[in-house]
């Protein structure tokens, strides 16, 4: 019976996720999850998709993503308020729960599949020179597709927002709210009660699975003179293990964290497959009083007594404002929309924390996450039964570091580059899903990664933290179902080129450390011993054994590429 159910589930999920043909282990994974009653251990089921809606609610929230899910939860805490959450997508799937598979969700039905306009300054390796802007079209929004890294902003970022005239947004103001939501499952981190808390809705845990590369990244950081620390703690500049919004080794989306526990509240309605097309605004008072939306092929209206809240994400929120007559007057007139409010800033000031992909370091030992070696029925069973194994790795993201290039003031603890240090990279899946997710051309992929397809590698992705380039979004037409035009303008500010160039140099330097070079030659006895002791390193750095370090790679370390024992 359980297997029968699982087969149905497998078929359904395969439909939902594009490009799963090569993943023959998926049915086994789903069958194992059903057989071992995986879901039953999580008592909270998915929220109901409310069929009949009222005419009016106190609050109408547009978009049930990261922000909208939290808002729906917190507002409906007040019993006297009625809250409606309208979401264009449906429910997340069992596959979107699996951390290693998050890239398989890009370009699936759960993704809006936005693409930027072609420009000459960046995205040159992508088909049509257009970058893919993955955005979740699903309850939980982009938190269902993202890589679950739990990193708060730098304190200086918040303080800067406050200094721009936003009281209440300084670091000390927002910290209690981060803590209110947090359920930190790493006991060592939880001890730091100034920065962490337990008992909140959002589960934060270490990855249940790391490779020996993870410990080596930390050693590389130490070798380069950085502290090893909790990047969400007192200081950010340095190296540390990633923390993840995961629970029991699976994704803890905001839908799971914030909506499932409150799904029985009578004053909260959640309507899926409800695509909002316009905010209704009174021309005289300029007050929003409802929204128009499509559901089941029909145009409908719902009214808001108190507020309409736009939480449709960085692309759809400005799009909806403009469709509703709020935006730059000239642009609205161009596309034939009646102007309710001339707001020149709507759609402007677009910022993105871009990273350089392609810094891939080939290694000589089979210790990295090569998909065709590690994703199989055994690992599927391990995921379903013991909630760990390679499938719980968030696409190989193991260690994070925040560093200062020469353009940042290093005494400030306000780094300008973040490194994502990974035990997998673009070629680790043999040119299938990563290439597809990012929209890389065949020509580029073959030239850059062709010779290292499915080879053992690690990656260092330098990511720019405070870009100065600014893009913008404008409407393609007044048809609300047309995607807007997105101009990224990446690297149009010369300072960004400088910072990213320094980031690349620093990333190459990581590969030059002794800690990482060990992976490029037969391991001497001493290095082998160090690799076998990542837990010891963790104990030294963080004060307790790292639950995330797995030793089952280690026998592999003793073998050369040809299988001979070294
Ligand atoms: C690939 C990827 C990896 C990422 N990795 C990380 C990470 O590791 N850590 C991290 O902190 N952040 C990460 N992010 C960023 C993070 O996920 C987003 O910043 C965050 O989810 C944005 O939240 P939001 O509520 O603004 O928008 P979203 O979460 O995108 O939610 C918007 C919601 O509105 C809905 N919607 C849109 N238009 C309409 C409409 N017209 N009518 C009704 N509903 C609508 C959408 O379907 C969606 O559910 C990542 C993002 C991506 C894409």
From TrEMBL:
Molecular function GO labels: flavin adenine dinucleotide binding; oxidoreductase activity, acting on CH-OH group of donors
Binding site residues for FAD: 138, 276
Keywords, comma-separated and alphabetical: FAD, Flavoprotein
Pfam families: GMC_oxred_C, GMC_oxred_N
Occurrences of domain Glucose-methanol-choline oxidoreductase N-terminal (ranges): 136-159, 313-327
Cofactor(s) this protein cannot do without: FAD
Superkingdom, taxonomy of origin: Eukaryota
Entry-linked SUPFAM superfamilies: FAD-linked reductases, C-terminal domain (SSF54373), FAD/NAD(P)-binding domain (SSF51905)
Similarity section: Belongs to the GMC oxidoreductase family.
Name used for this protein in its record: (diamondback moth) hypothetical protein
Species the sequence originates in: Plutella xylostella (Diamondback moth)
């Amino acid at each position: 019976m359980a297997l029968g159910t699982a087969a149905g589930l497998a078929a359904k999920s395969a439909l939902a996720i594009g490009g799963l043909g090569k993943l023959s282990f998926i049915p086994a994974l789903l069958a194992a999850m059903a057989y071992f009653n995986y879901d039953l251990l999580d008592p909270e089921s998915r929220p109901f998709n409310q069929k009949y809606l009222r005419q009016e609610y106190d609050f109408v929230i547009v978009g049930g993503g990261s922000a909208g899910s939290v808002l729906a939860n917190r507002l409906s805490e007040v019993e006297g308020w009625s809250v409606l959450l309208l979401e264009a997508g449906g429910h997340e799937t069992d596959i979107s729960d699996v951390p290693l598979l998050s890239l398989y969700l890009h370009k699936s039905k759960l993704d809006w599949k936005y693409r930027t306009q072609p420009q000459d300054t960046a995205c040159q390796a992508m088909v049509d020179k257009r970058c893919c802007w993955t955005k979740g079209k699903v309850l939980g929004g982009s938190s269902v597709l993202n890589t679950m890294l739990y990193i708060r902003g730098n304190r200086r970022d918040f303080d800067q927002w406050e200094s721009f005239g936003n009281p209440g947004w300084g670091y000390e103001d927002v910290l209690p709210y981060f803590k209110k939501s947090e359920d930190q499952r790493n006991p060592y981190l939880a001890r730091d009660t100034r920065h962490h808390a337990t008992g909140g809705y959002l589960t934060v845990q270490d990855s249940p699975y790391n490779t020996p590369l993870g410990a080596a990244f930390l050693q590389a950081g130490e070798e380069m003179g950085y502290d090893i620390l909790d990047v969400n703690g007192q200081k950010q500049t340095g190296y540390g293990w990633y923390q993840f919004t995961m629970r029991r080794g699976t994704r803890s989306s905001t839908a799971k964290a914030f909506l499932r526990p409150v799904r029985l509240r009578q004053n909260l309605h959640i309507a899926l497959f409800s695509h909002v097309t316009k905010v209704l605004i009174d021309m005289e008072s300029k007050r929003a009083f409802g929204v128009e939306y499509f559901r089941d092929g029909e145009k409908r209206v719902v009214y808001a007594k108190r507020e309409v809240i736009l939480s449709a994400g960085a692309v759809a929120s400005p799009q909806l404002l403009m469709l509703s007559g709020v935006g730059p007057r000239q642009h609205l007139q161009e596309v034939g929309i009646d102007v309710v409010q001339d707001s020149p800033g709507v759609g402007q000031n677009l910022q993105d924390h871009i990273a350089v992909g392609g810094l891939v370091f080939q290694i000589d030992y089979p210790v990295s996450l090569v998909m065709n070696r590690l994703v199989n029925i055994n690992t599927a069973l391990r995921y379903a039964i013991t909630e760990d194994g390679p499938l719980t790795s968030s696409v190989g993201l193991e260690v994070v570091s925040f560093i200062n290039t020469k353009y940042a003031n290093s005494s400030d603890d306000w780094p300008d580059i973040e490194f994502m240090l990974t035990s997998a990279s673009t070629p680790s899946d043999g040119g299938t899903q990563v290439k597809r997710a990012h929209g890389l051309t065949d020509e580029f992929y073959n030239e850059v990664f062709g010779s290292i397809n499915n080879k053992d590698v690690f990656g260092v992705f330098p990511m720019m933290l405070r870009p100065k380039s600014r893009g913008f979004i404008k409407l393609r037409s007044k048809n609300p179902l047309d995607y807007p035009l997105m101009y990224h303008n990446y690297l149009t500010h010369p300072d960004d080129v400088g910072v990213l160039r320094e980031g690349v140099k620093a990333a190459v330097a990581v590969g030059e450390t002794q800690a990482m070079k060990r992976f490029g030659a037969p391991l001497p006895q001493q290095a082998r011993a160090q690799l076998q002791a990542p837990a010891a390193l963790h104990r030294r750095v963080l004060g307790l054994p790292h639950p995330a370090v797995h030793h089952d790679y280690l026998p592999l370390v003793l073998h050369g590429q040809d299988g001979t024992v070294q």
